[in-house]
Description:
mainly alpha; flat; 4 helices
Amino acid sequence: LSVFGASMSGACIGFLMHNRYEASIFMGDTGSLALGGALAAMASCTGMFFPLIISSVVFIAEVLSVLIQ
């Protein structure tokens, strides 16, 4: 699990280096969903459900807002 976390951190740092001023890479929906899924998988594997719930409140509120509209 730590190797997976380290590889995800390395990928994010590589993306950050190419996404400074004059950004040349756009992550898009697929990349952000994969990153969020990986973060959620790591949180659920380590048993850290409370921080996962707190960090996802904004996204759940956004989904509910879209469904209500």
